[in-house]
Write a structure and sequence with these properties.
heterodimer; A: five-stranded mixed β-sheet; four-stranded antiparallel β-sheet; 9 helices; 11 strands; rod-shaped; B: about 220 residues; about 40% helix
Chain lengths: ~425, ~220
Amino acid sequence: MKLLNKSIGLYILYASVLLLIAIPILYFAIERRVVNEVDESLIEQKHKFIGKLENTNEAGLLQWLQNIEPDVTIMPATDANNKPDKFYTIIVFDKIINEKSPYRILESNITLKGKSYNIQLKSSLIDSEDLIESIVKTVCILLLLMIAGLALINQVLSKKIWKPFYSTITKLNEFKIEKNEALQFEKTGITEFTDLNNAIVTLTNRNLETYQSQKEFTENASHEMQTPLAVLQGKVDLLMQTNPLSKEQSELIGDLADVNQRMSRLNKTLLLLTKIENNQFSETENISIKEVLKKLIVQYSFQAEQKGIDLQQNFTTDIEITGNKMLIEIMLGNFLSNAIKHNKTNGSVIINGDNNSIYFINTANTAALDKEKIFQRFHKQTADNNSLGLGLQIAKKIAGLYDYTIDYEFKNEQHFFTLTF
Amino acid sequence: MKILIIEDEKELSKSMVAYLKAESYQCEVAGDVKTAMDKTESFDYDCILLDISLPDGNGLSVLKELKANKKTDGVIIISAKNSIDDRIAGLNLGADDYLPKPFHFSELTARIAAVIRRRRFDGNKILVLHEISIDTLAKTVQVNNNSVDVTRKEYDLLLYLAANKNRVISKNAIAEHLSGDDANAFDSFDFIYAHVKNLKKKMTQAGCTDYIKSIYGMGYKFDI
């Protein structure tokens, strides 16, 4: 729910409650006002009437008067008590309009020439149903106008005032730390948004700096390592040539050579990762995935054969992509070599493909892999010393570079890696 | 055969000299661009090993100078950077090869041998070792003038062993050589054992002495 809608919703709720409360208050206030008016006019009427009657004393005439003044009833008083004026409301069924109508009655005791009379004056009131109806109608119209008005204001507000906010959100969504581009916002003229943008710029700039310095550290460290590694490698190579060597010494030298080799490979791989992150493989060309896989299968067929692995390729249509050939080869090579490495003897590797995905399916020598962890740096599923735990991380980095997605599943004792272009 | 090693890391150049001397190469060392320029101006070398990052400048300037003076020395760039840009820049300037650090000395020897072979003007591209002759142009192998049907990998392996004859070659070096740049290709040395076994079998069947010796714990030796 949008913030604006939420606040407007609250306004509307408040206004509705207020107007609902206003209905009975308005009703009673208006009714009271009307009754007061009517009462005053009844008293006035009474005095006029008395004035008119002052000069007559004939009962017959009184009767006649009453006939021409239907709202007035005058009768000789049964008791001579001088009662005070009395107001009350009655509901009368009006035959003509077939409706109940309220009337205000004034009962009074008057004395005409020593004789006491009861006089009753009647005046019609506004029908309360009609009154409520018109009040409710008015309130409803007000409410509708208010909602419409608020909605309109909302529209304008979200378009105009919130525009910088939405542009900030868009920019944040597009922000990629690897691109090393600082965020820039237009001036908003609204304090809150300016504060927000400033805070975001500070935060992202700090992140960029940290990321950059970490990247540089990896890069420099790897580069600086190359020379001492080369020296070490050279010394080991020289040591191998010395004569005579005992069996024990040969074994030690062999171990040294292995460890040094692993270190070199690790370092080269870290450098490769850094280069991918630095976007140093910007050259692209059109690549046929089928061709790359064909080449890779030839390259790995010997290893597969050694393990008795059946390597199958079922490609119906070729996938054409644009990318850096070396990276694409590394990525697909990593999938294929993993499928051979983490396979059982006499297992199988199947490479399937459709319009925009390829699937590497291989029989597993382990249980299902942890989906969350397999793409992490240095996560190793096996204790194999020759595995660096960087293969999938590299594949993922390359895939990320071209917005490809990698999925992993484990079904029927088989690993399924899906690469979608 | 004369080789100039342009490398500022003394321990590395010292080791390279020691290794290459045993291959009966004459080696000279230059630790910076200035010394390197002086030496290349005064002498001709069969092969120059050139480090790019030197204390007083970029090693590529030595290469530029060589080409400007129309020198024909073979050049192998040795770099800690292993960047594609460097590789392309070096090869475009006329370098013969590019070897990223760290490298195996056996790999270096094989590369030097290949450069020297390519630069030879007598057109002789055939390597003869006793009864074995390797045609490096046609990439074929003969034993006592009879062709041996070897695969591409076996050919590469034989040439590598031959370039490092009588030296112990670590199995790591062979694995790296056979799988090229792809560090992922080998997860065990099984495939080297298999290649070596197949090559030995083919060679001995063709009547060749079994020169390939397995060296305990370390690797192989082409004992000829």
